[in-house]
Amino acid sequence: MDLGIKGKSALVAASSKGLGKAIALELAREGARVIITSRKPENLSRAAEEIRALGAEVQAFRADLTVKEDIDNLIKKALDVYGSIDILVTNAGGPPPGTFEDFNDEDWLKAFNLTFLSAQRFIKGVLSHMKEKKWGRIIGLTSVSVKQPLDNLILSNAIRSAVVGLFKTLSRELAPYNILVNCVAPGLTRTERMVQLARSRAAQKGISEDEALKEMAADVPLGRLAEPEELAALVAFLASERASYITGTTIQVDGGLVRSLL
Question: I need a labelling partner for 41 at 20 to 30 A (CA). Which of 78, 121, 247, 260 fits?
Answer without folding.
Answer: 121
